[in-house]
Amino acid sequence: MTSTKVLTRADLPDSDKWDLTHLFSDVDKWTEDLAWIQKTYPQLTEWKGRLGESAGTLVSCLEFEKSFDQKIERVYHYASLQLAEDGASPDYLARMGQLQNLLTKIGEAASYLSPEIQAIPDATFEQFLNDPVLAEWKTALKKIRRMKPHVLSEREERLLALGSSALDGYDDTFSQLTDVDMKFGALVDETGAEKLLTQSSFSSFLVKRDHGLRKRAFHQFYEEFQDHQFTLASSLAYSVKADVFRARARNYPSALEESLFRDDVPAAVYEGLIAAVRQNLAPLFRYYELRRRVLGLDELHHYDTYVPLVPQIESHVTFDEAIGKVVTALDPLGPEYTTALGEGLRGRWCDRYETKGKRSGAFSSGSFAAPPYILMNYKSDVFSDVYTLAHEAGHSMHTWFAQRSQAFQDYDYPIFLAEVASTFNEELLTHHLLETTSDRKMRAYIINRQIDDLRGTLFRQTMFAEFEKIIHAIEERGDALTLDVFKTEYRGLLRAYFGDGVVLDPQLDLECLRIPHFYHAFYVYKYATGISAAVALAERVLAQTPGSVEAYLNFLKSGGSRFPLETLQAAGVDMTTPAPIESTLRLFERRLTELEELLL
Question: pTM for this one?
Answer without folding.
Answer: 0.82
